[in-house]
Amino acid sequence: MTSIGRMIMLEELFKEYIPLLDNELESIIAPKKMYQERLYESMKYSLFSGGKRLRPMLFLMSYTLFSNNLKIALPFAASIEMIHTYSLIHDDLPSMDNDDYRRGKLTSHKMFGESLAILTGDALFNLAYETILKLTMEINDYRVRRAGYEISKAAGYSGMILGQVIDTCEDELNSSEIMYMYSLKTAELIRASISTGAILGGANNEQILILDEFGKYLGISYQIQDDILDLDKDKEINKLTLSKYHSKDQLINLINESNEKCLNLLSQLDNLNTSFFEELVNKLAYRNI
């Protein structure tokens, strides 16, 4: 099959799954008690602000390699998007990156005030785990419990939050330390989205390990590409990025190395159709270069 054919398939997959994911998110956050409307509007504003839904889509792409039962998968995918959105809301706060705009729209704290923005992030984070824990009560399956554990670990103390802590520190970081920060702040949730999709779908341990490693390198490649896109933005001058130590050409070489590892890992999944992931490696890594 040609590259163009795979791209069309990938776009069709997004068109098919994103409306299902959006409906799931809308159902989960719908107000059910008095005085929830204000919080609901703030949550909906950030959840439906034009994001790519990359992480939950990676989860679904991995899951559907092994299973087609979306009834179980969609709540997990929605939880991943809620965790990601909470992290963006808090990342934009005045005490963090102090950003006024995201995706061309006012950030949550600029739109609703700092107090409600903090509570909105907290609510999304907690609602994600509430959704996952509800599944573990409804479905007595080790895979559901393991997937929930892996997501919580990736998003928390030793994962994404630790990466954010490193990003806010005032210490001078070298290139390898910045790469370590990337592996936590950005790549960890991408990695976990892919590996937990495989876990929930019923992959064997070898397949899970391969997809876990694939997700790690894909996440690193994605973050380095963000560095390249940010090179011409004045606001990024004082941020901790690899562009402080590497030229654009060197960053592209790092992406190429990471992509090669991604494709080599996918080639080890002999009996699975990984064409969606193969196309995504190139689609994500070379966007807008």
From TrEMBL:
Pfam families: polyprenyl_synt. CDD domains: Trans_IPPS_HT (cd00685). One of its GO terms (biological process) is terpenoid biosynthetic process. The keyword GTP-binding does not apply. Gene3D superfamilies: Farnesyl Diphosphate Synthase. Its EC number is 2.5.1.10. Its cofactor is Mg(2+). One of its GO terms (molecular function) is metal ion binding. Keywords: Isoprene biosynthesis, Magnesium, Metal-binding, Transferase. Belongs to the FPP/GGPP synthase family. PANTHER family: FARNESYL DIPHOSPHATE SYNTHASE. This is Farnesyl diphosphate synthase.
